[in-house]
Design goal:
about 90 residues, mainly alpha, globular
């Protein structure tokens, strides 16, 4: 995991376990009410991956990761507000 500290490893672990867990929950139960949380987790995973790629000197892949993280974050916000009825 590189030179990241304990906080980065904990955050990475939370995002990497919560994202597939919420996706699997939605697929098994058919209840997609937590889909925005899964997309927020995906956004976090991609942001952390982008930071790691930037530190390793892979500028193109870090930029790509940040763009996709931003897109999934915007999508999660839109899902949240559309489900809340606002």
């Amino acid at each position: 995991m590189g030179k990241g500290g304990i906080l980065e490893k904990v955050i990475r672990g939370v995002f990497f376990t919560a994202t597939p867990g919420l996706a699997l929950y939605g697929l098994v139960t058919g209840d997609f009410s937590y889909q925005y949380l899964m997309l927020l987790g995906l956004s976090g995973v991609l942001a952390i991956t982008g930071i790691d790629d930037y530190e390793k000197g892979r500028k193109y892949w870090s930029l790509f990761s940040f763009i996709v993280a931003l897109f999934s974050l915007i999508t999660a916000i839109q899902i949240f507000f559309s489900d809340a009825g606002l």
